[in-house]
């Protein structure tokens, strides 16, 4: 997906100012990461010609720009080494890996209406 496509998406977005406050190379890097995140959720590359797919990538892009320290494993908050041992990971502020607005667009694309959780 081209940076121009995402820039156009942000031209009338509520977070337009925040988005354009990041320099172009950083926006482009976030775009590529967001595109890979969305592709992993869709099981294929997002299509520039499909609004919901562009929107999902755009929302994930701004999410990554605003939360650059977020990663998949988090930071170690405790480690116990006795016998087998264990580690506990925590994400800062418990942020999800996919932006909530991007997740809604992805659900619309995939037709998912239910979310199951184990508790």
Task: Describe this structure as you would to a colleague.
With 119 residues, the chain is mostly helical. The chain has a domain of 81 residues. Helix 1 crosses helix 4, helix 3 crosses helix 4 and helix 4 runs antiparallel to helix 5.
Radius of gyration, rounded?
Answer: 17 Å
Structural class of the helix and strand makeup?
Answer: mainly alpha
Average pLDDT rating: 82
Could you give the distance between the termini?
37 Å
Strand order of the largest sheet: 1-2
Beta-strand residue percentage: 5-15%
Shape: globular
How many strands, which pairing sense, and closed or not: the largest β-sheet? 2 strands, antiparallel
Give the H and E element order.
HHHHEEH
**Number of helices, where a helix is a run of at least 4 consecutive DSSP H or I residues:** 5
Strands, total number = 2
Low-confidence sequence ranges: none
Helix content: 40-55%
């Amino acid at each position: 997906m081209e940076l121009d496509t995402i820039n156009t998406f942000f031209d009338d977005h509520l977070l337009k100012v925040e988005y354009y406050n990041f320099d172009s190379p950083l926006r482009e890097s976030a775009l590529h990461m967001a595109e890979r995140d969305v592709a992993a959720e869709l099981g294929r590359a997002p299509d520039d010609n499909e609004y919901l797919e562009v929107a999902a990538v755009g929302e994930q892009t701004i999410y990554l720009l605003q939360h650059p320290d977020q990663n998949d494993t988090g930071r170690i908050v405790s480690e116990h080494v006795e016998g087998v041992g264990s580690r506990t990971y925590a994400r800062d502020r418990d942020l999800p890996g996919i932006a909530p607005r991007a997740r809604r667009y992805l659900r619309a694309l995939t037709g998912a209406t239910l979310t199951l959780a184990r508790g």
